Amino acid sequence: MRTRPDVLTEVKLPSGTVTVDEYGYLTDPDQWTPDFAEHVARAEGITLTPLHHEVISFMRDWLEEHGIAPDARFVLKYLQKRDGLNKHEAKEELFRLFPYGYVKQACKIAGMKQPRAWSTG
Known about the structure:
This protein has five helices and two strands. By secondary structure, it is mainly α. β1 and β2 form a beta hairpin.
């Protein structure tokens, strides 16, 4: 249970204004745009590459299809299949792309809501 309300901020981007929580996650994933991804990536010290965009697109498609953000294991499976990697190599690739973590960077850049709890199973 949360003990205080979220602190919300409006961020003005070339594509329009979006609302983020105090940690920079979108409050409404439907507000996501490539401008938002670039804005967050810059703040996180990441230069988005074509592979970043592919992973973000996979995550956005998963959200659209399933109604929830994909767990990291599904992104790892995507990388394994895409590049013929084993599980360990896929994990290394994911953390090379998003060095401070899947939830902290990948989910935020892809416009997912901040998870309140995250499954590890």
